[in-house]
Amino acid sequence: MKKIGKKTSLLFLSFLVLTMVLSGCKIKSSKTSSDSNKETLVVSIFGFNEDLYRRNVMEPFEKKHNVKIVLELGNNVDRLNKLKMRNSKVDVAAFTDYYAMQAIEEGLFERIDHEKIPNINNLYDVAKTPLGKDYGPAYTIGSFGIIYDSEDIKEPIESWGDLWRPDLKGKMSLSNITTTSGPMMLLIAAEQAGVDIKKDEDKAFEKMKELSENVLRFDDKSSEAINAMSQGKVKVMGGHSFEFESVKETVPTAKWVDPKEGSYAIVNTINIVKGTKNKKLAEQFINWIISEEVQKVQALDKVDSPTNKNVKLTDKEAEELIYGEETIEKLKSVDWTYVNSSLKRWIERWNKEISD
């Protein structure tokens, strides 16, 4: 009897251990199942300041709506090409206006309902419908101007016209025609030639050819120009406002110039991808990223310049940002519909006449 009782006890103990193990597996499985059952929103966006975007934008949205956000990170070109393949799982996509317009012309974005994204009403006019009333707003704004090293360039640069100065020969990096700011340089060349590019393209290219004599390199990525400045290979670059701090870190004597003729506005737009099954959630996300709450914290962290006009910043907080109605209204805009319709022709001429 004693022997049988001992065996029974061992069997009972084994049963308890097995039950605990199985129970533990079930709890773990249940947790995984719970996470997998959450609605998922796939957001295609730039890789800049990923940690701050996750902290300020993504994680609060996930918590508020009990959803999971998956990020697809990369530059404009790579992410747009993925969308063009039309097998993307992306629900919401952020692009600069130049690339967003290409996506619209390819039929890659859904038309939006402004009533379902009420925070659009709180944006500066330039940010409400930057690419037409049927498409998404701008969640941040930047400008295209000039960055130069004042230690090497003793005579201050104050205008776009100064880029043609003889003392800048071989000291400059400009963007290639296939980038966001490449077509802007061609528009600037037309202005310097005193012509409307829509009426006299030849003179614009002639003026751009003159400028190319001062250009050491045409870069395809902003990181390439920034590295060239940091390494001292070039002393002047056409740059976006958000790039200036990166240059300043390695070139303390770098200066930012808003040319007297005016800087060009560059806006990052946010749109709903065609065919998404999460349109309502996508609308909520767009409304979130342009909300006063998110725009304020992004501005304070110097991540994005706010497009929500309800965001109030002190002079100190606004440093290094494109901020305020007066500043934003001075920025020049680009007719991206015309640019994109001309781009194939411009690229062919650019490759033959400018960057050969």
Automatic annotation (TrEMBL):
Q: What is one Pfam family matched by this protein?
A: SBP_bac_8
Its cellular-component GO annotations read:
outer membrane-bounded periplasmic space
Q: What keywords sit in the KW lines?
A: Signal
State if Ligase is listed as a keyword: no
Does 4Fe-4S show up as a keyword for this record?
no
> Which molecular function GO terms apply here?
polyamine binding; thiamine binding; thiamine pyrophosphate binding
Q: Which PROSITE patterns match?
A: PROKAR_LIPOPROTEIN (PS51257)
Q: Identify the InterPro entries for this entry.
A: SBP, Sperm_putr-bd
Give the top-rank taxon of the lineage listed in the UniProt record for this protein.
Answer: Bacteria
What biological process terms from GO does the record include? polyamine transport; thiamine transport
**PANTHER family xref list:** ABC TRANSPORTER SUBSTRATE-BINDING PROTEIN, THIAMINE-BINDING PERIPLASMIC PROTEIN-RELATED
Q: What name is this protein filed under?
A: Spermidine/putrescine-binding periplasmic protein
